[in-house]
């Protein structure tokens, strides 16, 4: 009923939704700074187009597939809330917030989950292929996985998806449904699309570390909405998740830098930014089930594990351009599994892990939940990727890749570096534009501009 709506909870969920939406542009900056200059616009566009495609799908049928009446615990009925039918009524409530506030919050989860995958195939995927992928992957992989983890009956508050209901795996804000899911998909897609032309032979360093650091900062800022907002209320659970998010991320940042100092002799800004994301990923599933000390432990272990895991692509020979596998898959696994060890019975979840006398019961549930999502995502993503690759094509030509995917796919460049010279000539100013060709007529290389 309308009287069940709590205005404070509603305000917090709507603010959290906005914070989570900001994470996708933050991800675009984070990824965009890590690619080479000739591919920065394409990388930004891969995140931004996802906001468009998944946003539309969420309204049409995505929310219903994730949160409609459960069909065997596997997927929600896509017709229940198609077009968000019936959710504008003041009687449509989820917990203590209007149903559409919950719709908005979860929409932003769906968007960034899909956008995360793009980092694995940076610099070489066709924009059309990627756009089609966002539609198919959201429909066939993310929406069902979200149902497994997040779905519940609004009337009884019982979980509807089989991971949360039957297996009883804990996932506070998406360690399985989002990070393990996206990380496994990234590995499959990297294998389908193949390596960059010069991978392993030529350095492919980030072109703009300022963008990377800005993106990491926006992600950390938005993640407080991601995790604390998942409490769906302005309450103790939200406060616990907020503090745990801060603690884990800080610990992961420091841990990654320590690894770099010991291993390489110097800490880097890329390591700091990557450590931030690793800590955020690691604490996401555990934000409501561990203490702040447990959060520090998860963050530190995620920082160390991910710092070493990003090197797997070199030893195993796959080209995950921006380390989605090393950070999101590995970080998601660390956070999900450590719940089985570090879950504190005094936390909002009220579950005891192995180190708190709970035995291995929760640990095996966490392991099974992680494996189910990983295998499903990898297999279905590989099939989707192969279908796109063999039909419309999923990769630009080698010539286009070497010349720059921005020009090949968008006919734009991220940075116009053509020099402009000014010289005073009497009462006017001559502005000389130096273009690509040095043999253009002088009349085409100069323009007169009056003061």
Protein described:
Helices cover 61% and strands 6% of the residues. The protein has 451 residues and is mainly alpha-helical. Strands 5-6-7 form a three-stranded antiparallel beta sheet. Strands 1-2 form a two-stranded antiparallel sheet. Helix 1 runs antiparallel to helix 7 (209-228), helix 7 packs antiparallel against helix 8 (236-264) and helix 10 (292-309) runs antiparallel to helix 12 (324-342). The longest helix has 30 residues, at 361-390. 54% of the residues are buried.
Question: What would you say about this model in short?
Answer:
By secondary structure, the protein is mainly α. The chain contains 16 helices and seven strands.
Task: Describe this protein with a few key phrases.
451 residues, mainly alpha, three-stranded antiparallel sheet, 7 strands
Sheet/helix structural class? mainly alpha
Radius of gyration: 24 Å
Count of helical regions: 16
Poorly predicted residue ranges: 425-451
Describe the strand arrangement of the main beta sheet, using strand numbers.
5-6-7
Sheet having the most strands: 3 strands, antiparallel
Task: Let me know the number of strands.
Answer: 7
- Strand percentage lies at 5-15%
Taking the alpha carbons of the first and last residues, their distance comes to 68 Å
Global mean pLDDT: 92
SSE topology string: HHEEEEHHHHHHHHHHHHHEEHE
Percent helix among the residues?
55-70%
Shape: globular
Secondary structure elements and their pairing?
Elements: H1 7-34, H2 40-67, E1 70-71, E2 75-76, E3 93-94, E4 97-98, H3 99-117, H4 127-150, H5 162-167, H6 175-193, H7 209-228, H8 236-264, H9 269-283, H10 292-309, H11 312-316, H12 324-342, H13 361-390, H14 398-403, H15 405-410, E5 420-425, E6 428-433, H16 442-445, E7 446-450
Antiparallel strand pairs: 1-2, 3-4, 5-6, 6-7
Helix pairs in contact: 1-2, 1-3, 1-7, 2-3, 2-4, 3-4, 3-6, 4-6, 4-13, 6-12, 6-13, 7-8, 7-9, 8-9, 8-10, 9-10, 9-12, 10-12, 12-13
């Amino acid at each position: 009923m309308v009287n069940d709506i709590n205005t404070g909870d509603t305000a917090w969920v709507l603010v959290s939704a906005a914070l989570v939406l900001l994470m996708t542009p933050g991800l675009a900056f984070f990824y965009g700074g890590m690619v080479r200059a000739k591919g920065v616009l394409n990388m930004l566009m891969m995140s931004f187009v996802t906001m468009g495609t998944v946003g539309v799908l969420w309204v049409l049928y995505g929310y219903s597939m994730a949160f409609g009446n459960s069909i065997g615990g596997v997927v929600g009925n896509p017709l229940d809330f198609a077009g968000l039918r019936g959710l504008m009524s003041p009687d449509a409530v989820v917990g203590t917030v209007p149903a559409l506030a919950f719709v908005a919050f979860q929409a932003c989860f769906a968007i960034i989950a899909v956008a995360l995958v793009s980092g694995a195939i940076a610099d070489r995927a066709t924009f059309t292929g990627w756009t089609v992928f966002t539609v198919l992957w959201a429909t066939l992989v993310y929406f069902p996985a979200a149902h497994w983890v997040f779905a519940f009956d609004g009337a009884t508050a019982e979980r509807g998806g089989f991971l949360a209901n039957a297996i009883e795996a804990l996932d506070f804000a998406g360690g399985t449904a989002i990070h393990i899911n996206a990380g496994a998909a990234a590995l499959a897609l990297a294998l389908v699309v193949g390596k960059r032309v010069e991978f392993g032979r030529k350095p492919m360093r980030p072109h703009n570390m300022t963008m990377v650091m800005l993106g990491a900062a926006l992600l950390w800022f938005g993640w407080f909405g991601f995790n604390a907002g998942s409490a769906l209320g302005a309450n103790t659970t939200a406060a616990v998740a907020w503090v745990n998010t801060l603690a884990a991320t800080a610990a992961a940042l420091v841990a990654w830098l320590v690894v770099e100092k010991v291993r390489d002799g110097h800490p880097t800004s890329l390591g700091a930014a990557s450590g931030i994301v690793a800590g955020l990923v690691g604490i996401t599933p555990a934000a409501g089930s561990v203490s702040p000390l447990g959060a520090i432990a998860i963050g530190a272990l995620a920082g160390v594990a991910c710092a070493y895991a990003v090197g797997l692509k070199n030893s195993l020979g796959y080209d995950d351009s921006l380390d989605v596998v090393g950070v999101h898959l590995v970080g998601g696994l660390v956070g999900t599994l450590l719940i089985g060890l570090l879950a504190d019975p005094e936390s909002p979840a009220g579950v005891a892990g192995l180190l708190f006398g709970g035995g291995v019961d929760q640990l095996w549930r966490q392991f099974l939940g992680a494996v189910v999502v990983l295998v499903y995502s990898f297999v279905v993503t590989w099939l989707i990727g192969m279908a796109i690759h063999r039909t419309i094509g999923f990769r630009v030509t080698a010539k286009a890749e070497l010349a720059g995917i921005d020009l090949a796919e968008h006919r734009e460049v991220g940075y116009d570096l053509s020099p402009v010279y000014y010289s005073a000539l009497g009462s006017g100013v001559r502005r000389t534009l130096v273009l690509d060709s040095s043999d253009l007529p002088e009349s085409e290389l100069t323009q007169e501009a009056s003061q």
